[in-house]
Design brief:
about 0% strand, globular, disordered N terminus, binds zinc ion
């Protein structure tokens, strides 16, 4: 399997140290705090070694690399959902960790779960020209740069940010049982997407 050269190069560059505050200090680019952590390195190695197949992904310049990478993994069906983990023999139970009533697929988590529809409705109240929540993952992860088609490019940035915020939220729910309100989630997406 081939690695996507463009994305891989971009990720390799993240590994470099940079001076954020002044020339005498170095910081770890993979963490917001600038402090080195093993988990950030592990995540990064995971990203570097992810096989890409033939599908290419250009980094969308309006969202951070980590958000791009998550959207890209989602488009390839490579998120650690229960369905994907079962395919790899890691899990045996397919049912959604949040509602237990459907199989845990990308489709269910991002497009069908009741709370995600509510979050999307909130986003539409804020951004009137935002279309309905897509009915399939390939529409949700469709890559469009604003330079190609302005409004569609902005929508792509919003969709990728939506995937990022919802995925983090769902994982938090699994592990810490924290439930944020739809309004909070929608405003987090608005803030992070900088649109
Ligand atoms: Zn569910």
């Amino acid at each position: 399997m081939a690695m996507d050269v463009r994305v891989t190069n971009a990720k390799v560059q993240q590994l470099k140290y940079s001076s954020k505050v002044n020339q005498d200090r170095v910081s770890w680019n993979l963490e917001k705090s600038g402090i080195f952590t093993v988990s950030s390195l592990r995540r990064h190695i995971d990203d570097l070694t992810l096989p890409v197949g033939t599908q290419e992904w250009n980094l969308h310049r309006l969202v951070p690399r980590k958000v791009n990478i998550l959207a890209w993994r989602t488009s390839l069906g490579r998120l650690p959902t229960k369905t994907n983990l079962t395919k790899r023999g890691i899990a045996t139970d397919l049912s959604c960790s949040l509602c237990n009533s459907e199989d845990e697929t990308e489709n269910h988590l991002f497009l069908q779960f009741p709370i995600v529809k509510e979050v999307w409705n909130q986003l539409q109240l804020w951004w009137k020209s935002l279309p309905q929540l897509p009915s399939n993952i390939s529409d949700l992860t469709k890559w469009v740069e604003p330079s190609t088609a302005h409004n569609l490019g902005l929508q792509a940035a919003m969709k990728f940010t939506y995937i990022w915020v919802m995925w983090l939220h769902m994982n938090k729910n699994k592990h810490e049982n924290i439930l944020k309100s739809q309004k909070n989630l929608a405003s987090e997406i608005q803030t992070l997407s900088h649109l």
